[in-house]
Amino acid sequence: MNNNRLRIAIQKSGRLSKDCQDLLKQLGVKLNLREQRLIAHSTNMPIDVLRVRDDDIPGLVMDGVCDLGIVGENVLVEAQAERAGGTQNADVIKLSKLDFGYCRLALAWPQELGPQDKSWFEGKRIATTYPEILKQYLERENINASAVMLTGSVEVAPRAGLADAICDLVSTGATLEANGLMQGDTILESNACLIQNPNLNDSDKLALIDKLMPRLKGVRQAKE
Ligand code: ATP
Ligand code: ZN
Q: In this structure, is residue 26 part of a structural domain?
């Protein structure tokens, strides 16, 4: 890999991919995106785009494998909490919040139980893909409950008897409803954001970022 080129990590396929590709296009970054390629080289700027799973993006940027990344705040906060207190770098510079990828991390439980307050969660098992964010919330709220880590299909966990409740991403609430779940407290609100490795000190790369940032603001204003 050529180290002189600015490396940007984006989600390969999923809810953020299309918006990330559109954003790069609006910033004037021309890309030749071939479906199966991990790396796409820009044809008009010294930029390489790495297309990976969104969960890998915070770590790639924290470790300086990529200079920039676009990822949901939910994934970023979870990754930072995971690394907290360890020896690996958990810092990134948040360059900008982006106007896509909005969702919220919320608690939910079987609808037939009806409305519940926080005390109901005492001693319960809560399925989630975000155990660290959930644990922080439970500590903050003084609730003694346990997190059951699931990387997918969290919404079926109560029905499958794997957990009493869930803590999952919601945008419209349709998935919760389809699974007979009632939505409770929001633990975290999230948008996609642009992050930078804090130790980046290559002056050419920093100059390129300085050149792109005003364009990003321009794109955001044009949309408002
Ligand atoms: P990957 O294969 O890259 O790991 P994924 O299945 O983890 O993909 P997606 O479902 O594509 O991820 O979601 C990517 C991000 O989109 C989420 O982390 C979140 O920031 C955002 N997002 C926006 N709305 C929603 C939603 N309703 N449900 C889940 N994620 C959402
Ligand atoms: Zn993911």
A: yes
